[in-house]
Structure formats: C-alpha cells, structure tokens
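fyi for ur records
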Amino acid sequence: MTEWISIEHANEHNLKDVNVKIPKRTLTVITGISGSGKSTLAHDILFNESQRQYLEAMGMQGIEKPDVARISGASPAVSLKQQETSSNPRSTVGTKTAMYTSLRMIYEKLGIRPCPNCKQEVNPLQAIEETEHVDGDFTVFQICPHCEFKFKKPTRSHFSYNTIDGACQQCKGIGRVVQMNVNTLFNMESAIEKDAITLWKGRYLEYQVNNLKRTMSYYDVPIEDNMPLKNFNDLQFALLCHGTSSQEVENLTDKKEPKTVGDGKFEGVMTNLWRKYQDKNGVMGKEDIFFYSDTCPTCHGTKLTEQSRTVKVMDHSIIEISTLDLDQLLTWVHHCKSNLTSDEIAVVDVYIRDIETKLTRIKRLGLGYLTLERATNTLSGGESQRIRLSAILDSDLTDVIYIIDEPTSSLHAKDTEGIIDIMKNLRDKGNTVLVIEHNTDVMREADYIIEIGPKAGRFGGELIGAGTLEDLESNEQSLIKNYLANRSQPKQNVRHAGKTPIHIQDAIRHNLASVSVAIPTESLVSVTGVSGSGKSSLLFDVVGQEANNVSGLDQFDEIITINQTTISKMKRSNVATYTNIFTDIRNIFAKLEKSKAQGLTSKHFSFNTNGGRCDTCEGLGYVMSNMLFFNDLEVICPTCKGKRFKENILNITYNNCNINDCLECSVEEALEVFTNEAKITKPLKLLTEIGLGYLKLGQTLTTLSGGEGQRLRLSTALMKKNKQRTLFLLDEPSTGLHPYDIQYLLELFNRLIDRGNSIVMVEHNIHMIQASDWIIDVGPEGGVKGGHIIAEGTPSDIKANQASVTGKYL
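which gave:
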C-alpha cells in the first residue's frame, strides 16, 4: 500500500483550492508553464509547512502558516532552489565546499618552506616548536634544524586570502586591482584648452584650465596656450595628474603647496577620479570607461603573500593545487595517499579523506572541470545548485522530502542522465524526491507526475492531472503530453545568413585551444557543448569583450550581452518601473480630477519618493522582522496592510483600480484596465506575446528567473523605435521555460532577426538548438579536455555528424 503526502485546499498565491496527493518514497515531477503555481505548491506550501511543523514540534515559532487547510504525511524537508550565486568576489568553489579549508590544514601540517635565514628547506614535522606569549596572544615559533633560526610558524590563516596573514597586501586577497586607463583619460596630442582631458567639457573646462594655469604659474612652470600634453615636463604632468598635495609633486619641487585654489592649489585629474571612485564604491556610471580591472602585479593574481606561495607539499604550492581542475585534484590526493609517510598521513588523514569524499561526489555530478579557485559568482545557477546537491548525495537520512528546483537547468543532455541517476538513488534510500522540472527526459523517468495549469497567473493555479506518464497522456487537459509524445525535429528551412560573418581567429581565452570559427549573422546561432567545454568563454569573453582577434563586429550599432544574472538587485525595481510603464500610469493618475483637486502630481503616485507612499514601509508594502537564528522575514506592513500608499492616494481610482491595484495586476489584467491608453497597451501586448503576460506589474525583478529576466530585457529592445542593428549574446535564454513557453521565445527571436539583428546564444535545450539556423558545437568534454570546435553546421548537419556530442541527442 502506497503512503501519501496529502495537501488539502491550497490557496496560496494563484493556487485555486488545490487538493493533491504525492506518493512517498518516489521520484515525482511537478510541471506546468512558467507562473502556473509549481513553485508555490512545492516551496511555499509543502516546504514551508514542513518546516513550520518541524520547528513547532521543537517548541520554536517563526514561520507563517501558508494558505492551506491541511497537510498530512509530511516529513522534514530539504529545499534546493535555483538560488542566485554569491556575488562576493572572495567566494570560490574551494571556500563554498570547505575543501580549501581542508587543503589549508594539509599545508599547515606538512608544508615545507625555506628557512628565512639559511634558505634551506624546513620540514614542519622535523622542526622544534616553541610557544610564546606575544602581545596578549600565544604564538607558535619553529626553529630551523639547519641553522637554529627561530621564525613564526605558518598556520592555516597564512594560506587564506581572506585573512590579514595570508592576503596579498596590494590587492587584499582579490587577485585583481583596479587601474586607471590613462589612454582614455588623456589625449597626449591635444592641449588642455581643447580635448586633452576627456572629463573636461563646457564651462567646467574653462574653470579647470584657469585653475591649472594658475597652479603652473605658482610653481614657476607656466604653460603656453594650446600646448600639447606630450610637451609637458615632468613637474607639469605630475601637477596635472596627481595635484599639488601629491608625493609625486613633492619629489620634483621644494616649493610649499598653496593653501587655496585661488593661490594655485589643484587636486589633480587622476586624484580627483580616484576620490570619486572611493566615494561611489566603484559604481562610476559614464566614468567607468576610465577604469579597468587588471591582474595584481604583486601576487600575479594568486591572492596570497609571497611567503605563503613558497610553502610546498609534494613539490606543489597551494596556488598550483588550487588551479588544478577537480579531476586532476583527485589524482593529486591519491598521489599523496600513496607517497606520504605513515607519520605524515597520521596528521592529515582526516583532511585528505574530507577532500576525497567531496571530490568524488562533485565529479558524479559532472563538475570535474571546475577548479577550487573558480569564483562562485561565475557559476551558472545549475552549477551552483549541483554543488549544493553534492552535499546530500551520501547522506544516509531516510524519509526526507527533497524539493529540487530544475536540477537539469544549464545541463547538456549528456549530463542530465547522471542527474536522473542521482535522484533515483536518493529515492531508493527511502526518500521522497519532488522535482520542479520542464525537461521531458526527466518526466519520462519519473514515477509520478503532477501538472499545474492550464496557463499562468490567474489563468493557472489548478490541478490539471496527477498520475503516471500513461495517465497524463490520456488527460485531454494536459499541456505537456504533446511534448512528451512528440520529440522536436531539426529545423529544415534555415535562414540565409547575412553577408558578413563574425570571424574569430586563434582564440585562447581560458580553456579555448586556439579556436578559429565564423559565426553567421542575421541568424539564430546556438553555441552548444557539455558544461565547461568553453562555450561561454568563446561567446562572452571573446566576442562579448570585442577581442582583437574578432572581426565583423563593426557592422553592428551595439552589442548587448544578456546573461543569467538578476536584472536588478534593488527590491524597488519591478516589471512596471523597468519597462517604464509605471511612469505613464502615474501620469494618468495625476491628470484625474480628484488628483488635481488635492494638488497631487505624478510624484505622489510613486512608491520610491516621499509624498504619497506609506511612511512606515516606505512604499515596499512590507517591513523586515528579525528572526534571530533564521533569515529575516518579510512581514506585511501594519500601517498600509501591504498596499504601499497612504489612504488618500488609494482613494483615487482609474477604471475602478487604485494605484496599488494596478501594481497587483498581471500584464494581461492591466491590458483590460488600460485598454484605451495606446502608450501603455503597446508594451503590455508585447510582454503578453512573448509569454510574460502572467507577471504582475509590481513583481520585484529580484524574484524573476534567469529566463524571465532575459525575455524582459529583450522586450525592451523591441520597444525601441530606432532601426539600429544589434548583436545579442544570450546565456541559455530557455532557462526556466516550459516547452510551451519556448514557442513564444522563438517568436520573439524571429521578430528581432527580421529587423536585421543577430542572435547568438549558449544553449542546452534540445528544442531551442533544433530551432536554430546554425550550430557551433564546442568540446568534446569540459575543462582541459574541452576548448575545441568539434562540429558546426545546420541542425541536420550536426545530427548527422558522428564527432558531435550534441548531435547524438538531436
């Protein structure tokens, strides 16, 4: 007899009194188009209620009960969401998995370093140690067995780029430093009265020229009118760049600095820019062009001090080990186990086993091409999720509910098979594995499928069907059954490419092995290959950065790169503000007779400025509640009850909707409200046509999936009235999309290409790849085993090409 998790009368968000049973200890897929209510059912209902019941059983409070009458048969739940990867530049694969911590311990215990005095190698197991009380702390010293010199013992903190002991002093452990682009800032052939200083324009130019000439006269080095910068002497150029307070000027003259601007005091062009950079935390807007990031010249990008870089285990520094891919790192670990002495193994065995266990798990998930030094902010959502998934692989817990959000996202079809095996193993241990998924291959392998729909937003939230694959195929309402029964076929009527292709010659970025390839223009081009094969390096780091070895880019008026990062990190940015629709809506409200009578302007209908917004929540509709041991919780504002605005503003309506009602409308609902406002309906219709009609106008951009964010960005390109030719570089635009939604995305692409634009995308989705005009397959594997063009051609060409890894799945 099958046991069940029973969810009764679920009404959270757009769910409409959903009653559903989920079989325990099975692999169950929840599917449905974007915005249908899948995540609401799995995360907001089942996971939150499981957590709430578990915490209450331990006498703890805090999680609000979701809008569901009853859930029975639930167990403790683990949620693996497609979370945004860390934006912290210090976070790496090594620190995230704690493998780097174990590696640092190995280097502390076994690291052989040269003696600071006699330069002979010192083995820590042979050196005598002494502990002394220094400045209130106990410090361990080692005595060199060769010359008896006493020095401070290197500890684990000396091998961390996040500590004062270990981090390179110049770059503070980041590995890169910001430099000023002097070539962009100065035109050495020109004079200061003209355009020698890019920053100086209009009246500001006249003001600064007068200041600088006064400064030069004070220091007895006057400059002639219209004198080119290249003719400035050392003192003149130092005064211009660094200013009167600088060490550079002090080194060149004995004259005391003037006290006021009127006397000749001058800040210096570069000094002024650096000050602005510090004040704005590096967010310079238009002035970004004067700065660039470069490898730290002191540590050469290794992040660590020179002392830490000289310590070796098995003839390798910790820097060399961190740059190995995880496959190579496992080989090194095995080499250590085979060649270290029994005494050495005794002190590091626990750390070696920790690294070995974690490496084995991560390799099983197809991530062997990553390195410990790889920054987590460069990982895709799928890669980041698989690293978290690796932590639970060898867990012996049973009767746990694992809720996994699109585990095959960002995965090549070859790697998807491995993920399916892992989920089946979790199930076979006696756990309930609940997967939110659009991938039909995963559905075909599932024990049970739940479909939510039929459409999105207010048109979704219903239980379409629940049962086996066969049950769903006989369900007339099912939207997914057609995609399960019929696999898509390669596109036959491919476009004729534009006259001038984009040529890449001998690209060697990251793992690219001197790649040369031509990319067709005025076409839909897919760059394919397994994870880590070099797709992103080719498209974003070579073409996107407009490298010197790329030709054919001058035919475009602009190049737009759209990746999987969140459009905005600001909680005040939403769909209405991003598309500029909210400005037009506020203007309509401001022109109403009731508004004019109260003297209200469009500003009063903004939740971002004082005036009409609620003062308690400052227009957000919620306030933050500190949960001590848990993440802070968003609680509905007690003053405005989540309606963002003051009472007098909410009393003003247009077509029976106040300003907050408009924000709560979906795009499709807003079309009905503003049916007579052409300026508003035009962008709303476009959003509906590209499958985003279910989004609320007030939905925060931080809550959008990568795929939703990309489509929203692309829609703004279609809203432009100009006829610019644009090259779009896209990173897996199908992420988070149901097969039904993909047709809308392809329609959007067709419209952009018909206008003379070009689209090149990194893609894993088979349906998207088959709908392309041209495919470039990179591989054959990831990391050092990738970086080659293994096939290129039309979808039919790739399918017939035996060398193509992707072709086998078309």
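The chain has a mean pLDDT of 90. thats all i got for now
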